[in-house]
Amino acid sequence: MARKAASEGEIAAALKDLPGWALEGGALARRLEFRNFRAAFAFMTQVALLAEKFDHHPEWTNVYNRVEVRLSTHDVGGITQADFKLAKAINEIA
Q: How many CB atoms lie within 10 A of CB 83?
């Protein structure tokens, strides 16, 4: 399947169905907070396994109970359907 960057309109429409996500610096971004480090790390582990299955990996950081996630498709230079799909799956895990 050929991948292409989504238009501004497609991104705006998709964000309506992705609670917690925003467009930041050309990427989908979400900040999550958990009750402690263990819960944050468990979340990241679930996402990592799913991302590997999707062959589409997030940029993320973790500090104690906070996880920040950024999604974009680097080889396309923008946000693609793969990013929307992973964002939706992340919401389901969260």
A: 26
